[in-house]
Amino acid sequence: MLFNSLPFIFLFFPIVVFGFYLIGRFSGEAAILWLSATSLYFFCQWNAHYLWLLLLSITVNFGFGYGITYFSNNKSRIMLLTALGFNLLLLGYYKYAGFFAETMCQAFGATWSFGKIILPLGISFFTFTQIAFLVDSYRGKVKEYNFFHYILFVTYFPHLIAGPILHHAQMMPQFRSKNTYQINWENVTKGLMMFIIGFAKKMLLADYFATIAKPVFESANSANPPLLVDSWMGVFAYSLQLYFDFSGYCDMAIGISLFFNIRLPFNFNSPYKSHSIIDFWRRWHMTLSVFLRDYLYIPLGGNRHGNTRRYLNVLVTMLIGGLWHGAGWTFVVWGGLHGIYLAINHAFRDLRHKWISKGAEKNDPQKNCYFRSLVDWIERLLSSGITFLAVSIAWVFFRSPDMNTAFSMLGGMIGKNSFTWHHHVHLEIYWPIYIGLLAVWLLPNSQEWMGLAESSEQESLVQNTPRLFKWNPSLWWNWLIPGIILALCILELTNGKPSEFLYFQF
Question: Which of the residues 7, 16, 225, 371 has an alpha carbon 20 to 30 A from that of 184?
Fold first, then answer.
């Protein structure tokens, strides 16, 4: 069941919300059970055959988490390693066994096969969520072990299929709070607006840019590969498609969750406004970035053993992050590119810091006063442009079904096929790409517009958002504009089958 489908919008979701508050009037625990049961039903709409796998994963991980806290340090460590092995084997079999067999067959000419393995939807997200729970249990950060709360923590349907990756300490206090089970009309109103914003991003923007990107990538391995400008426009169109698709999902998930007075962590914060690759990964898939940093990069040694080891740790982390997105060499290359980008970014920052420190005494303070703002603006503009181009080039591998397609696209981008372009096609189709890029670079994001913030930095952005781009409770903002946007989305939805969110496949 998709968020952007008529059965979800007009049947499943209203019933879940109504039942949640009706039951919550009498018992918060019963409301938790209701939300857990409906979340499991939501999962079953994809593939009920794998319900046993989800429940097995939940039961085993909860038992290990409780045991890790209960036993002594030595036994806790053994239990942690055993539990991590269980999760990695489960994820490895369903997600990577076929890829491993195919790779071995190509390398050694063998005929190994694991048969046809259907990937359980959301396995990457509910596995990483529970790995974080296990490690947090070992570190003493988990303070509550309520099995029914834990079931909801893992299966909570707004995050189940495509994230964000949750932490036990983020959700348990909200499940315990009595205010969670009392309807809050401000949260309902904001939730509805966030849902409609995300709905519009998916239906009106992401799916539109997909119609531009798809034929360009499909032509990459044909007899008529894309030309120079067509290649770049196809890549930019996909960059916008992925941006609005993932951003739209994140907004819809946050909006849906606000109906239940539950705040999901932000997972997307205008990543194309980033001034560096480091900044990009603080804004793109934020919960995954935090997970990779806290549970992989830092345990590998982080930056504690010199720069060489630091860059190696970054590269290994991003290679695993790339492989997490999909079982294919294109994802490995995508992750490796970002690992190289990050290593270069860190090295450049270190050199720049040294240059600034050495030249600080030689600089004229008055000269800095006159020219610093201009120099800073030019530097931000150049760094943002370079960052976006680097990210877009890496998206070529992320989008391509195989390496041949990726290299064909890259060949088109450097003019290998031709330096010309189809003028009439450029004028008729590609102009929305420029508007889309200006929108993601210049306009505030949905959190800023709705006044939602998680950190002091985001709070500062919210406060500095121009009044024109701030939501305020009124007839105009609450009903007229949302009603028009919702009607357009529903009309678009009735004209064809709803498309899946891109991150559902990971």
Answer: 7
Closest C-alpha to 439, from 286, 244, 251: 244
- Catalytic, 325? Answer yes
In the structure, what pLDDT confidence band is assigned to residue 504 with cuts at 50, 70 and 90?
confident
First CA to last CA across the chain, in angstroms?
16
In the numeric block, which tokens belong to residue 174?
């909200």
Q: How far apart are CA 252 and CA 202, in angstroms?
A: 10
DSSP state of 266: P
Q: How far, in Å, CA of 181 to CA of 36, rounded? A: 14
Spatial contact of 254 and 194, defined as CB atoms under 8 Å apart: yes
Query: Cis before residue 164, ω within 30 degrees of 0?
Result: yes
Q: Do residues 133 and 168 make contact, with C-beta atoms less than 8 angstroms apart?
A: yes
Closest-CA residue to 216 (of 197, 201, 235, 203):
235
Helix, strand, or coil here: 235?
helix
* Residue of 409, 403, 404, 239 lying closest to 333 (CA atoms): 403
Following DSSP, what letter does each residue of 217-237 receive, concatenated? Answer: HHGGGSSS---HHHHHHHHHH
- Asked whether the CA dihedral 344, 350, 352, 355 is positive or negative, the reply is negative
CA–CA distance, 13 with 279 (Å, rounded to integer):
35
**359-406 pLDDT tens trace:** 554 555 555 555 667 777 788 899 999 999 999 999 999 999 999 999
CA distance 263 to 322: 28
Q: What are phi and psi of 240, to 5 degrees?
A: -75, -40
Among candidate residues 149, 167, 325, 346, the one labeled active-site is 325
Spatial neighbors of 150 by CB under 8 A, at least 6 apart, are 58, 62
The torsion defined by the Cα of 127, 130, 135 and 141, in degrees rounded to 10, comes to: 160
The conformation of residue 468, written as its DSSP 8-state character, comes to G
Query: Exposure string (b/e) for 263-284, b if CB count within 10 Å is 16 or more?
Result: ebbbbbbbbbbbbbbebbbbbb
Residues 6+ apart with CB under 8 A from 200: 248, 485, 488, 489
**Token pair listed for 425:** 């096609």
pLDDT above 70 coverage of the chain, percent? 88
